[in-house]
Design brief:
Distance between the termini: 26 Å
Largest sheet: none
Strand content: under 5%
Order of helices and strands: HHHHH
Helix content: 55-70%
Shape: elongated
Length: 85
């Protein structure tokens, strides 16, 4: 799921080649309009809100950790804290 900024045919093909089903609305300026699952697209905000809450932690938003393993460990820790709330 993504917003209209990612509606290029190249990006849609990439998703389909990886075995996914794209749920990206097309821009109004496109001549050929395609159908999407509106109910599934409405659930996109849940994911966006989760990442916003995760980025409230300054350490994650600014990527202070230089090593990927430490960064990922702190992301896991932050996710656990969000889950406990």
């Amino acid at each position: 799921m993504a917003d209209k900024a990612y509606c290029s045919r190249k990006f849609l093909k990439l998703i389909e080649n990886k075995g996914g089903k794209p749920c990206i609305p097309c821009k109004k300026s496109y001549k050929v309009q395609w159908e999407i699952d509106i109910e599934q697209y409405k659930k996109r905000n849940v994911v966006e809100r989760f990442f916003q809450r995760l980025k409230e932690n300054h350490r994650i938003a600014m990527r202070f950790d230089k090593l990927a393993t430490r960064f990922l460990a702190f992301v896991h820790f932050a996710c656990i804290l969000l889950w406990l709330k």
